[in-house]
Amino acid sequence: MIKANNINFGYGSKAILNNVSLNIRENTFNSIIGPNGAGKTTFMRLLSGLNKSYEGNITYRDNDYSNIGPKERAKSYAIVQQHYSTRFTYTCYEMICMGRHPHTGRLERLGRDDYDMINSTIEALEIQELAGKKTSEISGGEFQKVILARALVQKPEVLFLDEAFSEMDISAKLAMIKMLKKSVDEKKLTVVAIMHDLNTAYRYSDGIHILKSGELYASGNPNEVFTEKSVKDVFNLDVEILPGKGFIIK
């Protein structure tokens, strides 16, 4: 679905990514993991089309990124970043409604189908009590849920998540991941998420892509990629792997 071939990227003389190639398969939940400074966020910005100043080639459904305009990309991709700010104060409902804008004309108003999708998404995320509140009145974790809802009503084929659960408590984070995993299985969504929780990535991912020092260390399914050696090499952790369950740090 998304293929990155021999990607090189840097800022000035500082190399960030070196010869990175991988394939994101359709209708899968993918986790990009690695230590701080490995190039995860930079690589996601390239994969999502936010930055096109790289060497190499990235395609979406065999269409080179240079041929995909912002409007077309907005209909296929949605992006939830770790930090988001706005100069204006909206209600949470207004913020979520913005996710439908790529699918409407410049002066076109939202229709009944749009509002049905918005309301069903709010119910699925169980954030009805936030709808009437202003975005300035809610917590960071609640705001991340609102931004996730906005991304989902965009009805993307690919959802990019850059540490999108960082301010949620563990219960909310797991609920969101389980909901997204269900959408992958039932609604043909493809998810690409930067994750720091290795156990969560192991349990819920179809594909794991490990970056280390700007290079692709490994890519494949969790049972292939996660070994005691790989966790030691990349994260300097001694672990015992419980197949199908997760890790115990020794």
From TrEMBL:
<dbReference type="GO" id="GO:0005524">
    <property type="term" value="F:ATP binding"/>
</dbReference>
<dbReference type="InterPro" id="IPR017871">
    <property type="entry name" value="ABC_transporter-like_CS"/>
</dbReference>
<dbReference type="InterPro" id="IPR027417">
    <property type="entry name" value="P-loop_NTPase"/>
</dbReference>
<dbReference type="GO" id="GO:0016887">
    <property type="term" value="F:ATP hydrolysis activity"/>
</dbReference>
<dbReference type="Pfam" id="PF00005">
    <property type="entry name" value="ABC_tran"/>
</dbReference>
<dbReference type="InterPro" id="IPR003593">
    <property type="entry name" value="AAA+_ATPase"/>
</dbReference>
<feature type="domain" description="ABC transporter">
    <location>
        <begin position="2"/>
        <end position="238"/>
    </location>
</feature>
<dbReference type="InterPro" id="IPR003439">
    <property type="entry name" value="ABC_transporter-like_ATP-bd"/>
</dbReference>
<keyword id="KW-1278">Translocase</keyword>
<keyword id="KW-0547">Nucleotide-binding</keyword>
<keyword id="KW-0813">Transport</keyword>
<keyword id="KW-0067">ATP-binding</keyword>
<protein>
    <submittedName>
        <fullName>Iron complex transport system ATP-binding protein</fullName>
    </submittedName>
</protein>
